[in-house]
Amino acid sequence: MAGTQRYLRYIIFALVCLILLFFISSSSVPSRPWQEGKPQDVQPGTPPITPNTQHELPPATAPGERMNATFVTLARNSDIWEISRSIRQVEDRFNRKFNYDWVFLNDDDFNDEFIKVTTSLVSGKTKYGKIPKEHWSFPEFIDQDRAARVREEMKEKKIIYGDSISYRHMCRYESGFFFRHPLMLDYEWYWRVEPSIELFCDINYDTFKFMADNKKKYSFVLSLYEYVETIPTLWDAVKNFTAAHPEHIVKDNSMAFLSDDDGKNYNHCHFWSNFEIGNLNWLRSPAYIDYFTSLDHAGGFFYERWGDAPVHSIAAALMLRKDEIHFFNDIAYYHVPFTHCPTGESTRLNLKCHCNPKDNFDWNGYSCTNRYFDINGMTKPEGYEKEQ
Ligand SMILES: Nc1nc2c(ncn2[C@@H]2O[C@H](COP(=O)(O)OP(=O)(O)O)[C@@H](O)[C@H]2O)c(=O)[nH]1
Ligand SMILES: *[C@@H]1O[C@H](CO)[C@@H](O)[C@H](O)[C@H]1NC(C)=O
Ligand SMILES: *[C@@H]1O[C@H](CO)[C@@H](O)[C@H](O)[C@H]1NC(C)=O
Ligand SMILES: [Mg+2]
């Protein structure tokens, strides 16, 4: 009996030793290295190289045809890091699946660094264009002394960009010329992207195809009231245009979005144009060109400080049918200082959104989106009352 016990104790002791040995040896010598390379080659003092060396995520390209479409950005070389942030978000949330081209426009030459960095970020083709001088300068019919006096006055009144010449050229260019740039003539659809914007939700379908399939020509995500001091005579200029060209005003238009008294006065509502998905052939149509030319000659781009947002919006509201304008609730967007975060929790969860619903501007009193829903007889998204 005593002999058997001794034997058992001996066997258990030997087993425990064997198991311990096995663990010690297997933990010090990995049976299958998880990383290629020889750790013993690393020099003392040099940080180890992380295995994050794959240059691309697995392809996640959406199948099917592509539309005749491009992104478009107006930028300076100094905007490089701000536009890179925007591109990265557009790529991650949308374009890595669709690989649309991207056109960059500048009144100066783009430098090598701007071209190198943006080309590396965009999954489609990139194209770089210089704006012709005659599209970024004072037209001969503008009295430059008068324009200079206005800038002084606006500076004293502390109107944002009130004393800036380049901002005025920018607004005029976005109003009347970007869609006629030779690089843009190759396309039918555009999506405008500015520096430092954010996209908060996945976009898992082709927005350009959506526009085409649903006969949309212009779209927006944020709307608001324009700063009156920048456009005192814009509405008069619009009325002069509509009187001279009644043929360009369509019947089922959105005048009620712009005016509370059937066109007598402008209520200053406009779609925010730093985000736009739209149809370039519409902007290149005789109706829009006549409209822009008429406003341009009225001089308000320089004698006031007309923005391209009210200029585009008034055109869309009067020269497109109501049902040709689209509001993208599902495109979550930020441009300082406003956020459009989709109304409706299920939308936000399905699209993996990371915006705070409390930041949504849509149902705020300074937004015109409520009015947009009303004049179109649209039902507001579920949960909107809670956001007012
Ligand atoms: N090339 C060029 N782009 C400009 C100039 N001024 C503004 N932009 C671009 O025009 C767009 C609107 O300008 P931004 O400064 O964002 O104006 P804000 O959004 O109204 O405050 C942006 O895409 C800018 O990069 C300029 O002088 N030259
Ligand atoms: C794209 O649209 C532009 C403008 O309508 C047109 O000139 C061009 O031929 C189109 N390209 C293709 C490939 O359809
Ligand atoms: C509108 O037309 C009238 C008459 O030609 C002109 O006096 C006025 O300056 C114009 N308004 C604007 C803002 O262009
Ligand atoms: Mg901006």
UniProtKB/TrEMBL annotation:
* Presence of the UniProt keyword Transferase in the record: yes
The alphabetical list of record keywords is: Glycosyltransferase, Membrane, Transferase, Transmembrane, Transmembrane helix
Spell out the molecular function terms from Gene Ontology: alpha-1,2-mannosyltransferase activity
Protein name (record): Glycosyltransferase family 15 protein
Identify the GO cellular component terms for this protein.
Golgi apparatus; membrane
Membrane-spanning parts: 7-25
Q: Where is this region: Disordered?
A: 34-62
Is-annotated flag, keyword Transport?
no
Tell me which domain of life the UniProt entry assigns to the organism this sequence originates from.
Answer: Eukaryota
Q: Where is the signal peptide?
A: none
Which Pfam family is one of this chain's hits?
Glyco_transf_15
Active site feature: E276 (nucleophile)
Family assignment from sequence similarity: Belongs to the glycosyltransferase 15 family.
An example GO biological process term is: protein O-linked glycosylation
